Amino acid sequence: MRSEPYSFEPPGPSQAVLVRLAGFTRVLRHHGFAVGLKESEDAARVLSSDAAQRPLTLRAALKALLSARRSDWEQFDGLFDAYWLDRGRRRVVRITSNPDATAISTGGERKAAGDRQLEAGLAEPVAGAAGDPSAEANGVGRMQGASRAEQLSKTDFRKLADAESIAEAHALAARLARLMRTRFSRRERARSKGRRLDMRRTIRRNICHGGVPIERIWRRKKRKPLRLVVLLDVSGSMNLYTSVFVRFIHGVLDHFHEAEAFLFHTRLVHVSPALREKDAGRALERLALLAEGAGGGTRIGDSLATFNRWHAAAVLNSRTCVMIISDGYDTGTPAALAAEMRQLARRCRRIVWLNPMIGWEGYQPSAQGMQAALPFVDLFAPAHNLQSLAALEPYLARL
Amino acid sequence: MVMTREEISERLAAAGYVADRELPIVLQLMEMLGRPLLLEGEAGVGKTEVAKALAAVHASRLIRLQCYEGLDQSTALYEWNYQHQLLAIRAREAAGTDPDAVERDIFSTRFLLERPLLAAIRRDDRPVLLIDEVDRADEEFEAFLLELLSDFQVSIPELGTITAQSIPRVVLTSNGTRELSDALRRRCLYHYIDYPDVERETRIILTRVPGIATGLALQVARLVEGVRKEELRKTPGVAETIDWAAALVGLKVTNLNDAPDTAYDTLRCLLKTQEDRARLTREVAARLLGRVA
User: Fold this and answer.
1) Which chain B residues contact residue A70 at CB under 8 A?
2) Could you tell me the CA-to-CA distances from A379 to A152, A176, A305, A324 in Å, in that order?
3) What interhelical angle do B99-106 and B82-95 show, nearest 10?
4) Which residues, 6 or more positions from B136, have their beta carbon under 8 angstroms from its beta carbon?
5) Other C-beta atoms within 10 Å of B285: how many?
6) How many CA atoms lie within 13 A of A121 on its CB side?
7) CA dist., res. A134 & res. A143, Å (int)
8) What was the ipTM of the complex prediction?
9) For the segment A287-315, what is each residue's pLDDT rounded down to a tens digit?
10) How many Cα neighbours within 13 Å face the side chain of A17?
């Protein structure tokens, strides 16, 4: 069927196909795709065009239409094949390791999808099956596994959920956010003094003088707030201090205009989305789920490498201050850590390393990792509780 | 009239762009749905080239807006030519022209400086509008862009609303220095451009470097693939490959294995930092070269 894509009423796809399509968009949404009504509508148009003649072209067309970012783009082919071509079902069965959890999360939907398929009279109730790998792909499955293994760290984070200490941490973060100086950006703003004449605004201002430019408006660099990126070590050696800093990070994310937070131990986790939760208790709960492996060993170099490779481009800019909170005890090689630190230093404005061990009597930053990292650090300071963090205020403000 | 996929592929090839399998489908879809196309991919995989090729496919003009931090409406959309206006006012004052006429004249399109976005919607031949590296612009600009891309009209207080004569074909590219808003992503078709595989890269070299032998092109493509697998700070893009191939042709190399020293010395076309050069030692290069043969 060759349809006229531009005709006003395209010969729409059959009802059965539309129902299948609706099921597919549901599966996609389940996997974190942002598919709206407009997209579904356009997808229906694609289905009635000649792109739908072959599975491969249909897949490419729907992929371009329905994905919005690289992660979508990469998992689309698999989802498409599973749903429309009935591939990948066996894999799904193997992944579903936790029958209870899946029954809760997707059982209802699977049934609904199955019913719809019966109605539509189409083969293979794959919608439900394809819904399952979401558990794996989205990290839900991982989180379920983690929550059991990390019962310990969970309770650990919860201890700090008393209202008073949270308020204290927030107040400190708020003060810091105010203090940390803003930076000039390339974006310019009109001011009464400045470097360049702003013609548009000057003319507008002087309309009352008959167009004679008596008052002049200038352009000046706009100030933008400093962005703070916190990398917190939550390995076993940091156990004593983790709670304090998690509270602090929560406050930072709340008060800084631009801030991101990561936890690391043997690997790196981006925790900003979880910590942005307004309710502190809920945020800590989500955090506990994410902090798989917390309290174990540390691989600072590897974690920084992950950061540099995958997150740096998105969260670092020339106005960013990176704050690393760690004792510097690293199980990786110092050379690797130094290389990553060098790369990090190149991409951000300042690196602050807060080390809780400095507070201890007779402590020398002799850990090999610490030695390797020191040359790239702009401020190396002690911090083991909120008081010592507060004492750092003037230094941090000057960065 | 919507072109078929085959026609698009043919015209892309004629324009000198070697597309991956999916791109023609995406371009056809773009035509069919009238949505902008968002291209992402590492630096140097030819995102901008897609827009140029698209302009060639439709034989239309390419209008390019390069985004940067601090880009604002007066550089992206329009600006009045104030100096020109002031001069005109003075000149007409001296001549004693009717003030109303002066006023009408001053805010006519004659004194309007068209910037890329306005230029794109004022043309009636459906130009290709390339908004390059949209992630470098500020969030404010992105919001404004979103509005423009949905309405295709601009209001200039002194002139009134200008509605697009024809909807331009819009291509946006992003390097991922900042996460784009979901709203913008959702409005666009999405295509991720990866580094080409050996076969496609060979074809690219053959179309882009005149006078290169097929054997050498294949060797270059294979070696570059090997270099990309090394842990480098700046992975070489397609543009670098083409540079290198052109350099080899210029130095009259016909087989990399015959001239390993020249090959190594010209590798600097691919490696753009001191660190990467240090990492790709003669030994590593020899190993890669050995695999290519």
Assistant:
1) 40, 192
2) 33, 16, 21, 10
3) 160
4) B67, B68, B69, B71, B175, B177, B178
5) 18
6) 3
7) 12
8) 0.81
9) 766 666 666 677 888 888 888 888 888 88
10) 12
Strand A259-264 and strand A227-233: the pairing is parallel
Interface test with A, best of B115, B181, B186 (most A CBs within 10 A): B186
Average pLDDT over residues B31-45: 89
> Is the per-residue pLDDT at B127 higher than 90?
yes
Q: How far apart are CA A290 and CA A282, in angstroms?
A: 13
Mean pLDDT of the residues in chain A: 70
Contacts of A53 (CB under 8 A, 6+ apart): A1
Q: Which tokens go with B149?
A: 């891309």
Q: Which 3 state secondary structure label does DSSP give A126? A: helix
| Neighbour-count burial for A144-171, b at 16+ CB within 10 Å, e otherwise | bebeeebeebbebbeebeeeeebebbbe
H or E stretch covering B69: none
**Token pair listed for A177:** 């956010």
Is residue B244 a contact partner of residue B220, using CB atoms and an 8 Å limit? yes
- The tokens for A109 are 């939907």
| Phi–psi pair at A191, nearest 5 degrees | -145, 170
| Intra-chain end-to-end CA distance of chain A, in Å | 66
Q: Does A278 touch chain B (CB under 8 A)?
A: no
**For residue A195, how many other CB atoms are within 10 A of its CB?**
10
Å from B35 to nearest chain A CA? 9
Q: How far apart are CA A35 and CA A100, in angstroms?
A: 29
Question: How far apart (Å, rounded) are the C-alpha atoms in residues A306 and A343?
Answer: 12
Residue matched to tokens 């739908």 = A52
Instruction: Mark yes or no for CB contact B82/A200 under 8 Å.
Output: yes
In which element (H, E) is residue B115 found? none
Nearest CA in chain B to A60: B22
Instruction: Give the number of beta-carbon pairs within 8 Å between A and B.
Output: 94
Supply B201's token pair: 């890269």
Q: For residue B241, what are its two tokens?
A: 């490959």
Reported pTM:
0.66
Does residue A188 surpass a pLDDT of 80? no
Q: Do A64 and B189 touch (CB under 8 A)?
A: yes
Contact (CB<8Å) A65/B33: yes
Residue A6, token pair as written in the block: 């531009």
Contact B130, B65 (CB under 8 A): yes
CA distance B112 to chain A (A): 12
- C-alpha–C-alpha distance, residues B96 and B88, integer Å: 12
Beta bridge partners of A268: A264
